[in-house]
Each structure stands twice: as structure tokens, then as C-alpha cells.
Amino acid sequence: MEKRVVFKNRWLPYLLVTxxxxxxxxxxxxxxxxxxxxxxFIEDAFGLRSEFVRFxxxxxxxxxxxxxxxxxxxxxxxxxxxxxxLSTGLLFAVMADRVIKxxxxxxAALLWPYAVAPAVAGVLWLFxxxxxxxxxxxxxxxxxxxxxxxxxxxxxxxLVVIAASWKQIAYNFLFFLAGLQMIPKSLIEAAAIDGxxxxxxxxxxxxxxxxxxTFFLLVxxxxxxxxxxxxxIHAVTQGGPYKATDILVYKVYSDGFIGLDLGGSAAQSVxxxxxxxxxxxxxxxxxxxxxxx
Amino acid sequence: MANVTLKDVYKSFGKNEVIHxxxxxxxxxxxxxxxxxxxxxxxxxxxxxxxxxxxxKGEISIDGKIVNELEPADRDIAMVFQNYALYPHMTVFKNxxxxxxxxxxxxNEIKKRVHNAAEILELTEFLDRKPQQLSGGQRQRVAMGxxxxxxxxxxxxxxxLSNLDAKLxxxxxxxxxxxxxxxxxxxxxxxxxxxxxxTLGDRLIILEDGHVQQIGxxxxxxxxxxTRFVAGFIGSPAMNFFDVRLSxxxxxxxxxxxxxxPLQNGAVPGYGGQEVSLGIRPEHFKIVKDGDGAIQIKVDxxxxxxxxxxxxxxxGEDNTxxxxxxxxxxxxxxxxxxxxxxxxxxxxxxxxxxGKRIEN
Amino acid sequence: xxxxxxxxxxxxxAMMFLAIIIVLFPIYIAFVASxxxxxxxxxxxxxxxxxxxxxxxxSVLQSGKSTTGGIPVGVMMWNSLIMALGIVFGKISISIIxxxxxxxxxFRFRMVFFWIIFMTLMLPIEVRILPTxxxxxxxxxxxxxxxxxxxxxASATATFLFRQFFLTVPxxxxxxxxxxxxxxxxFFFDILLPLSRTNIAALCVILxxxxxxxxxxxxxxxxxxxxxxIVMGIQAMLYxxxxxxxxxxxxxxxxxxxxxxxxxxxxxxxxxxxxxxETEK
Lengths: 293, 360, 281
Description:
The structure holds 3 protein chains of 3 kinds.
Chain A: H1 12-38, E1 41-43, E2 50-52, H2 56-63, H3 65-98, H4 103-111, H5 118-128, H6 135-142, H7 153-181, H8 185-193, H9 198-209, H10 211-228, H11 230-237, H12 248-258, H13 262-288
Antiparallel strand pairs in A: 1-2
Helix pairs in contact in A: 1-13, 2-13, 3-7, 3-10, 5-7, 5-11, 7-10, 7-11, 8-9, 10-13, 12-13
Chain B: E1 4-13, E2 16-26, E3 31-35, H1 42-50, E4 57-62, E5 65-66, E6 77-80, H2 92-102, H3 107-120, H4 136-148, E7 154-158, H5 166-183, E8 186-191, H6 194-200, E9 203-208, E10 211-216, H7 218-223, H8 228-233, E11 240-246, E12 252-254, E13 260-262, E14 275-280, E15 286-287, E16 295-304, E17 308-315, E18 320-327, E19 337-341, E20 348-351, E21 357-358
Parallel strand pairs in B: 3-8, 3-9, 6-7, 7-8
Antiparallel strand pairs in B: 1-2, 1-4, 4-5, 9-10, 11-12, 11-14, 12-13, 14-20, 15-19, 16-17, 16-19, 17-18, 20-21
Helix pairs in contact in B: 2-3, 2-4, 3-4
Chain C: H1 6-33, H2 38-43, H3 53-63, H4 73-104, H5 110-119, H6 129-138, H7 145-149, H8 156-167, H9 171-180, H10 184-195, H11 197-212, H12 216-221, H13 230-238, H14 247-267, H15 269-279
């Protein structure tokens, strides 16, 4: 879409875009290009020599059991988090949509986990599940279930999934609620007259009509789970125990910054970039059909 | 107050030429209406005068100075937009003062001018309100106020009344007329509504598809339309057109059957025996006694308006549809045949191909 | 809700209540813990508030956690504030002028610049950490406020938001301004900017939260303790090899870390909601 009316200045537009373009080039494009380049090289420990290995780093990556573990972990983590966060968000939205009185209070109360940083959310839930003194851990113990996420990998995964979803529920709730409120009441009433009971109405009419929102949120949740949850992992489990929660974004950090494996980390970055690009493209393609520019 | 001259003005968007040569001299203090159907280029022409569109070829001068390269702000013009274009976040006062503020006019001078204009337009009590708190007519007036305070050389109007309801439009037309008589500033007014153009304009520029069809006073355009287009565009209900043939000597119009109509001044040179387009306005038909009529029309239906009656029917071999306007109330049965005559001076002839008027 | 079944209404309210409990529970427990002495929370669960509220919070703000080198949390919060405000201000200002240039001007490379900006959408910090770190380091920006904020302020979402909005501003308004004598700069400040107020407010809320909650980037580039931000500082509190974990202090810090963004959401809820929805279009 274009504007008919336009100013004629020669140099002003360049001046206006310069700050953003400069910062984008210096801090985004150039580093991304560097990562791309580095992924094709192996550097020695001192950074003195680098050897062009073409796809060597990638091949090594995908045959590295640790990396494959990370892929698997990330997959489990993102699917669980997305599923939990989306279904809970949807449930709360459906409930909030029916409630006329007190809806604003509920909305206000449910929104604020969005403000909590992932790392802080992680710390909160860490405290709740702390084996020695966490209220939930102790409750589980009293029920006969021995909780110790420091030792047990599966439990660590549960912990981070809960922490991650808890935070995202607010966001999903908001968008689902908005989506629900856009569905014309007359459709639901027509279905009721046709004899559909609430549950059936929901699955056959409301849910399909909600699908654009659902799809959009799915992509957002997956991106969130892939990237923004670094804080949770780093603060709570550091990828452990024994790499049980070693998700991709964490691994890039630990291999690159702690392990100082530049080529490998760069290769991992490139893989992550490919994933983001794919997700973004999917999102745009899908939305473009719905949104007029 | 200044004159505006357009000399051989052309406009193209890319390869697409939309204005094909406008030549016009608008005298200082004149109110000129640019009239035409949608898409004829009238807004584009106005915007070229304003400086909002680049002039592809030709010259536009204001007050003797060529303004082709000047920015709108430097041409000493003011413009009323179709949707008023009021700044939504500013009060009425600030809206009107904005142009003056930019020109660094002293504050008390600005205040004086704004209050003056507000008084003329009866906006004084609205000066502190924002546009969304005003009605359509009031917003219109604010837009005009914005122009008045500038005291420019030329006022430009881009279909300012088209967003108002019919009653308001009539009222605003009168106000515009008054305003022009009081202020006397050269005004160029674009509209597709011929009633507005006819009542407001000292002269009309009629455009069709980027071509100037005629420039003349309302009466001229009405009584001596230069082209078939103008003839059909001006006047409501529209002029009736028939395809007729001239007699060999060019003195008579031959209609279907044996009827023929004499032309007013005698022969039309060069058109003897040819087919031409004949135009007759609905109000120029008169019912005559049987036998004396030149045109016979069979009534299809009748619209009784009270002051007049519109009779719709068809005539001739080819059943051309026509409309007749008769004063007072008449009741005619469907199918009745009326005998109608037309004074020779009210016959308009147009070349079938070029559409130009044939003088007789 | 078509049928009027009281049972459903009760159930709905019950579920909503449950929802609120789930959402608020961790925060409640954390807050409670932060009001006790360290020993109280070490082995047992506290259900209700203790008496150390003031003491804990003041000590944390002023001197931090003694066992981790004691950076006053107050300092950390200050760093977070500067970073968040820097990001808010930085992002909004460079995005709005870029959007203005792209929408209201025709110039060579306009579409090229548009796509460059668009690319930032696909490059969150997490996929370029190492090289960006090197760039920042080579510019000498480690451990500086500039280094904290600059790499995060070029992002397409704000630019797109403004672009979308500018496209809805009627052309006639711009033309009227031109006739009035306003050049592009005047038009921007006198007309476009005031009209963008609500969008800017919404973005302020979203970006403040985004900036305040940054974790990975501050973690990477701050090695000096007094440049720590509060969100990343919490992590340091958790892992103390030989000493006892002072949960009460950690929880107090967590509460403090949450406070500003939550306050912003509650006070500016409308702008927050608008901001979320607008940036995702």
C-alpha cells in the first residue's frame, strides 16, 4: 500500500532511516553473517587459524549425540509448553468469556504473569519445587512421591515446562479472549437452536472459528519456547541434570561462551536462524491471506 | 485577489495522459466552477493549480507569476478539501491558526484574524472544541475558516459540499455565494453537481475525460452548449437526443415519417443530407392542436411533480425515448399520442462524430 | 452463553477462581517467604507472612546478598531501569522516524531498507549471540549502558506498527498541512506525532517490559558486578557453592524484579492490551 501524497525532500528520508539501518547492519546483519561464515570454519583454540570445512561443522553437529539430545529435548519442551499454555489459556478465556460480572477483574488478575521475566518465573517455581523446602515438593513428598528435580531429569523437564507455560498463559488468554469476543453471538445462538449442546457447540463452531487465532498463537508459543526461555533454563537447571533440559538455545550459549567452540556454536546458531526464518515465513504467509496491507 | 492563467496544461501519470491541454484565463475576483463527471480530471486540475500535483506540460500562473515550480505554501493559495482535512488533535482555533503560525504571524494578529473569520462563519462558540465534536456542516465551515484567515490570492474548493446532506448543501451554497460576494477573492470550485456549478459560478469550465468541453457562463452553457456532452450534462432532466437527417439543402430536419422541422436561420452549410444529432430540452416542448405538431410522442408514463409534470414516452420509427416537461399538472393515459412542437431557436444540432455543436 | 444454567455459572466462577489461584500462587508464596528470616524458610514451608518484611527488603536493596559479593539490589534495579528506559526510548524514536521515511517519502533503496529492517524480525538476539558479542566487545561497549541497550533497539515490530498506523492517516491531512505551509519536519512534529500518541503509549508499556526482562544479553556483556541487572542478578543468587541458600533474600529480590513491570501492566492495562494486539498484526 502506498500513500498518494509524498514529500519531495532528497536527503531527509535517508537521514531518517539511517539510525535504524546502521544499528540493524552493525548489530544484526553483520553478526548474523559472521555466524553464517563461522559455521563453515573450524578455528583453533587461539583463533589464529581457521580452516574451511564447508559443511563439516553441520555434519558433526547432526551426528553429535548431545546435539541430537538437545533437539529432542527442545522438541519435547516446546510441544509440552505450547500445549499446556495454549489449552490452559483457552480454558481460561472460554470461562472469562462467559462471565459478565467480574470479567475485568479476572482479566487484570490473569494478565500479569506476562510482566514476569522468564528467569524470574523459573526462580519462583524453583522455589515452589525446591526439594528441601518448596511447598509443592513437600506436598508431593507427603503424598509419597519423591520429588527431586536436581537429580531426576524428567522432573526437571516438568518443572521448566510448568514455569514456562505459567508465564505464557496470560498472553494466550488475552488473544483467545479477543478471538472469542469476535465470534458473533448469533452464530452460537443459531447452533443452540439447532440443538447443539454447549460442548458440541464449542468443538464444531467456536473452535474452528478460532483457528486463525490458534494458529497465530501456536507459532508465537513455539517461538517463545525456542528462544525466550533461555532465562528459565539458565536460572533453574543449567540444562541439567545430565542435559535433560539442554534446549537448543541454551546449548548455543553453553557451547559458545563456556565451551568456546566457535564453529560448532555458530553452526547451531545457523540452524536456529533457519528455524526462526521458517516460522516467521509461515506466520507471514498465513497471515497475509487474512490481513490487508 | 489575483488572476489565474492555465496555458496548455497537460498532466500524465506515467505514460497515461489524463489532462489533454487546458487553456483558461480566470479573472481576478471571479468564481469559476470546474464541472464534470467522476474521473474527468477536475480534481487533478485543481491540485495542479494548488501545487499538490506536478504539471507535466504547460504553465500555470497566479497573479502573473508562473507557479509551476512553487510549493503549495508559496503560491498564496488556500484550499478546502472534500473531507475537510481538519487536524483532529487541534481545537478549531488552532486548526485555523496553524497556517498563520507557520508563517510566523504575531500572536495578536492571528487571534484577530481567527476571531474575525469565526464571526463571519458563526463559529465563535466552537473555537475551543475539537473537530470530532462538531457536525458535518460545522466542520465544513472550519475548513473554510482556515482558508479565510490566510487571506490568500486564490481560494480552491475540492467538492466541499459532497459530504453534506441535501438540505445542508442548499444552505451552504447560499453561504458560499455570500462569502464570495463579501470577500471577492478569486475562487476555483470543483464539483460534479451541475446545480452547484450553475448557481455558484460566474463561469464554468466543463471537463470530460481530461478534455475541456466548454468554458462559459452558466447561461451560455445552458443555451448554447458547445458539445453534445455539455448539452447532455447540463440541465435536469437531461436534454433529449435524436438521430435525424438533414434535407439535401440543409434547411430542414427530416424526422421519421414525413414530418420535418425547419431550422432557425436557414441552411446549415456542409451538412446537407447528412445524419446529425438533434437535441431538445424537455422544457422546450409545447403541446399543439392535432395536425400542427411536428413530433408525435406516445406516452409511457407520467410523473406529476406538482409544479411541473414530466411525461416519459417514445417517438419516431426507432422509438427514441424522450422526456417532456410541461408546466402544471397533466394527466395523460398510457398510450396517448401527444402532438408537440418546438420553437426553431431551441433546436440544437451536433455533429454525430465529433459531438461539436453545428451552428445554424 | 445461551442457556442460563446456574450450575454452569457457579462452575465458571469456580474455574476462574482456580485460574487466579494458579496464577497468583507462586507470587504469594514468594512474597511470604521474603518476609521471613533465612532459617525460617530453609527447612519448612511458611504459609503466612513473617515479620522481617522491612528488614529483608531494605537489606537487599542496600547491600544485596552478602554471600554473593553483595551488590545492592537497589543498584541492580537502577541498571535495569536505565536499560529498560533506554530501550523504550531508543526503539520508539528510531522506529518512528524510519516508518515515517518509508511511508511518506519516495527514495531510491526505499524497499531495500524496508527489507533490511524486516529481517530483524527473524534474528532475535538468541541466534546471533556470539558474533554480536564480538562486535560489541570490539566497539569497547562491554559493561556499558550503551552496550546493554544499543543492540536491542533495532527491531521491526515497532517500525511496522508505526507504518501500519501512518498508512491510515488520511492523505488529505498531509495535503492540508502542505497548503498551510508545513514542511515534512513540521508535519511530523505538529501533526503525525500527536496523532500517534496512543500507539506510542502502548509501545512504551510493551517495550518497557521487554527491556526490563532481558536476560541473555545482559548476562553476556556485563562482567562487572555493578553493572548487573536485577533479572540476571537473581540467577547469581541461587548458586552459591558453599553457603546456605538464603531463599528469603532471593524471593525478596524476585518480588522486586517483578514489581516495576507488573505495576506498569496494572496501571496502564489498556495501553498494554492495545500494545500487545497492535504489535502482532
